[in-house]
Design a protein that fits this description.
Order of helices and strands: HEEH
Largest sheet: 2 strands, antiparallel
Shape: flat
Distance between the termini: 61 Å
Length: 73
């Protein structure tokens, strides 16, 4: 029974992968065209699309580095 379930899951994943890839491209284009910065999946927690300007990693690291000076050893 477990083998059949595993095989079904593998087959489902294999068949759905191209659909998800196409859907991701459509969502990304739609979001960019309509200036939408963030698209969330309401059924599963997670980000589907985020514009590059939503990524504040560099700014946070700069602030962190500025407030945390290296200690002398």
């Amino acid at each position: 029974m477990r083998d059949a379930q595993d095989e079904f899951k593998r087959k489902e994943t294999s068949l759905m992968q191209p659909v998800y890839k196409d859907l991701d491209a459509i969502i990304t284009k739609y979001a960019e065209d309509h200036k939408i910065d963030l698209v969330l999946n309401k059924n599963n927690p997670g980000v589907i699309h985020a514009s590059a300007r939503m990524d504040i990693t560099a700014e946070i690291l700069k602030e962190f580095d500025g407030s945390h000076k290296p200690k002398d050893k």
